[in-house]
Amino acid sequence: MKRKVPVFSQFFAVFMAMFLLLGISAPQTNAAEKPNEKNISLNGLIPETALNSQIVVKDGLTQPIYTTDDAIVEELYVETTVDADKDGKLDRIHLMLYRPKTDPGVKVPVIYHISPYNKNLATYQNHGFIHDLVPVGGNGQPPSYFQGFADQMGAYAAKNLGTLANYFVPRGYAVIIADSLGTAGSDGCPVSGGKEEISAAKSVVDWLNGRAKAFTKAGAEVSATSWSTGNVGMEGTSYEGTLANAVATTGVAGLKTIVPISAISSWYDYYRANGAVVAPGGYQGEDADIHAKAILTRVNPGICKNVIDDLENRQDRVTGDYNDFWHERNFLKDVADVKSSVLIVSGLKDWNVRPKHFAQWWEGLSENNVPRKLWLYQGTHGVNATNRNAFQLLEHRWFDYWLYGIENGIMDEPIVDVQREDNSWSKEASWPNVNTLSTVMHFNAAKETGGGSLTLQQPVNSAGVTESWIDDTKTFLNYVDDMVKYYNNRYDRYYLASNYGPTFVKNLLANPDTANPNRLAYLTSELSNPVRISGTPEISIRASIDRPVSNLTALLVDYGGSSPVIVTRGWTDPQNLESARISVPIVPNKSYTFKWAMEPEDYVIQKGHRLGIVLIATDFESSIIPSSGTKITVDPSKSQVSLPIVGGTTALNLTSTADMKTLVNQLQDQGDIKTNQAAQALNLHLTGVNQFEISGLADKVVKQLQGFKVLLDQQKKSGLISNRAYDLLNKDVDQLLKKWQK
């Protein structure tokens, strides 16, 4: 989660302090002017605003009336309640405080940003991820490590957060930039979302409300109550936003709101998925212990060795199971204790902190009636340049509402904003979309030409038909080894495997209508109108595996553009049949029903495109990469995907009279239609319907379909068709009627 931080100057705090010490003016935002407190509409949430604030509001927004020339800058150390480094002393959190110079008696709210990235990452090594998987009862692989990606690609620079203070201090806010536990200037040890980290971060909120102590570097105690209203808003991206989520679950008094951006809601779901060890996008081999090593940038880092070793031992990289270590780091269990409002911001293409994090956090907040808003943008990890100005305005309005109590209408708007693929925005009442329906689509075995299909109808003539694929990791690893030689060992095997993994996954998506021994593909026909996915797809396959352990991966793919697009994906460890907490032995070549959720998504598949499910074993981008050759055999007739489609089956609009005629023939072959005459009568009627479909004569199509239902009733009464045939054909007729009665 240490992620692609822009290369700016490393220490904005030092920069500001030097300017003030030398008597040089800091960059000026706006000259101070006499504040005008008249005609400010307040929402009643923050009584302090009417009593002791000094702000100007225009168009519902606080205006820049304070100059940064006079900004007060302090370097402080807040005493926490934890001793994470076990040195016998309470750890302290280092912070830089920026606040406007106000008149005596004026108090300001605080925007609090705590980060592990205020100093370059430490040197670290990732876990090896090319090794065999471990069956239940087996022994784990001997530990192996390789140089972390940050060191091979150049060290990350500390994030310059001066823009936060430059924007908000002139508008009447204090801004705190703090170092999380064990990083930069703070004491303690990083524990990847553990309770010590949360308690330490909470201490800053306590100090702002007079419940904790802070000191200067020289040791003098400093109070905040003379200038702080005690009203705090936390914000930040990735780990920073994760800490905001975590502190909110403590219910600490004074924390009025949080703005988590691309933030974790459960650390298990960051490094695991349904029992499988799954790396965050682009960070193969990383785990909770490795990340802690990377951000361990405090003075005397060696004091944290035992703490880091404990993380490695307890995270259980062998089984991937959910355990007490991960439960401690699951903020969902404490969501009922959240007392602050929450503005969730997340990218719909973020494969670092994957969509499950915002989706389950949003669901938990909704169930507990927490005041909230969701802002989903088209982008990856962290707000992109395209949306930065829009986000800044949103965050400004949000903080004004919740920290100053300004009635600006933000909570009267629909609570969900979703950016579509063309960068337009829509406002919605909830997420997933209120009209989302779980829509089951069935796998149909591939024809001789090689392509399987995905249909609303359950296959009627494929009982006993199975399909198989081989997990071909050998070809991938051979290619990686060739590239190691090509680069004269400048890059090691792990680094190149991580970089070439996405390409090999894309190769498996190509030519879905042609058989491929290393994957199975099931596609819909071309869509006659756009179809929106909004929510969490779920996979269920009946399959056997010829080894006691394997990877299993499902990809939801949009076919029809210039190249296939992975809409979402999901992974599972087959040994976690019933629960992520428990692995059970898998008997080779025995059939099981494997079910798992894919990552949530909000995506529109365009008219003329096809929607596909691609089954593979090893996801070269994220999975442990084992030896080659595992064979997985699927029974398509007992396999399906449940898709969260806005409008459900009606929106898919896949049923046609041609499909129904095919179904009639299949039912006759299976003995569900008893005579040739009965089948011919049904097909003849459908041919008539089709002629009116082609002409677009909706009224006549509807009339003919109603006549078809009468024919079905007659044939059932006469014993010419089975109950099964009657139900299947009636279901299709109802779909067509919905289509043509619009």
Structural description of this entry:
Its EC number is 3.4.14.11. Belongs to the peptidase S15 family. It catalyses: Hydrolyzes Xaa-Pro-|- bonds to release unblocked, N-terminal dipeptides from substrates including Ala-Pro-|-p-nitroanilide and (sequentially) Tyr-Pro-|-Phe-Pro-|-Gly-Pro-|-Ile. With 742 residues, this protein is an alpha+beta fold. The radius of gyration is 30 Å and the shape is globular. A hairpin with a 5-residue loop joins strand 9 and strand 10. The strands form 6 sheets. It has a 12-stranded mixed β-sheet, with helices on both faces. Strands 19, 20, 21, 22, 24, 25, 26, 27, 29 and 30 form a 10-stranded mixed β-sheet that branches. The protein has a two-stranded antiparallel sheet with strand order 1-2.
Which CATH class of the largest domain applies here?
Answer: Alpha Beta
Query: What's the name of the CATH homologous superfamily of the largest domain?
Result: Alpha/Beta hydrolase fold, catalytic domain
Number of DSSP-assigned strands: 30
Helix- and strand-based class?
alpha+beta
The coarse silhouette is globular
Helix content: 25-40%
Which key features would you list for this structure?
12-stranded mixed sheet; alpha+beta; 29% helix; 742 residues; Jelly Rolls; 10-stranded mixed sheet; Rossmann fold; globular; disordered N terminus; 3 domains
